[in-house]
Design goal:
It is built from three helices and no strands. By secondary structure, it is mostly helical.
Length: 64
């Protein structure tokens, strides 16, 4: 069985070395709410002139 004084000594040594824990942060202080942006239907329309910018092909990237 442990000596109660050694537990108190260990606790005092921990407190002296590490100090106290920081204060708790409330959940409300950690969360930021923002309004969602409205859906823009033009964002997803097909643009045949600009579609080459989003084309990905390994053979083309390697110049084969």
């Amino acid at each position: 069985m442990e000596n109660p004084n050694s537990t108190d000594n260990a606790s005092a040594a921990r407190r002296a070395r590490f100090g106290a824990l920081p204060e708790r942060i409330r959940y409300e202080d950690m969360v930021e709410e923002k309004k969602a942006t409205p859906d823009d239907p033009a964002r997803y329309t097909h643009d045949p002139e600009g579609s080459w910018r989003f084309y990905s092909c390994l053979a083309v990237d390697l110049g084969l």
